[in-house]
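Complex 355.
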Amino acid sequence: MEKKIFSAERIGADEALAMEGMGLFALARAANERMLRLDSSGEVGYIVNRMINYSNICKAQCKFCAYHAKAGRVAPFRMSDDEIFALCADAVGRGGVQIMLQGGLHRDFTLPWAENLIRRVKTAFPKLWLHAFSPSEIVWFAREENISVEKCLERLQNAGMDSVPGAADLLVPEIRRELCGNKCTVEEWTGVMRALRKLGMYSSATMTFGMGESFRDRIEHLDVVRRVQDETGVFKAFIAWPVSPENTQIEGKVDRVGAPEFLKMLSIARIYLDNIKYIQSGWLTEGLKVAEIALGFGANDVGGVLMDEMVVRAAGIDNRATPSNMRRVILNAGKTPRERGGLYETIKIFNREEA
Ligand code: SF4
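Predicted structure with iron/sulfur cluster bound:
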């Protein structure tokens, strides 16, 4: 199998399953080889962005989520449009180039509301990249409005939405039924991705793992992502992170995935997803030190600074980053920092002195 990887051949699902037994350093070597075939620049990207979690009132009540109001960790709240707008303005003032907007599934949040909000923000800040609303929120808006997902996305695009975060959790039907049965199904998620691409928009593929799934389930997830990417080319990047079970319904039922397991899955994802250029190193749940190490395991992007992220913090994980932290992590890994935009385009390359 290593021979296949080093000669740039695609590996099959059975071969990916066999990688479970590979040593970490062998995986790192193979993942880096794969990464270099897709990106030999030696640069690692980051984006200055703000995550606005506009509400935690959510009907989905996923068992692995500590953020929704019923989990009891964060009191129910809903930001007003003025509050959201003020956070966008503040982010722009602090050099932010992207806003991520994600909340809960609730009848207060409708497509007309989302259109109005996006139009208002985009009119004031036309260059701000709006990476907004997870596939479950999109499916929710479409259902409430009684229109197709494609029509819903088209209306959001016309209002100014630029791209959609992946928010895939695990794309395995049995796992979704058990842990997040009120979110979109695997078919609905892939349907959002196909519709996005038809409209010329992009997304990211994500993977949340460590919820009690098998290793085979994880490979099944990667396989769904790879097939959708073969068909559409919709994913700019892949991002994996272990679930934080603290304060959720799965606390005590699963062991928290540690850094070695995270690095193993990251490497295997890098090897398997030979059609996605950027793999992020997941600092939010794992911290900046592990993110730095992950840059030796095939990752070539450290993601966003994510000012104000709340979902992971609700589980008691409080990692924070600034643009200068990001550049330091990248330099420490022997790479060149590259500030980027929402389409992974370069904004600025930093040398050691500037960083
Ligand atoms: S993970 Fe998202 S959809 Fe699920 S309960 Fe939490 S906020 Fe709602």
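The first helix runs from residue 2 to 6.
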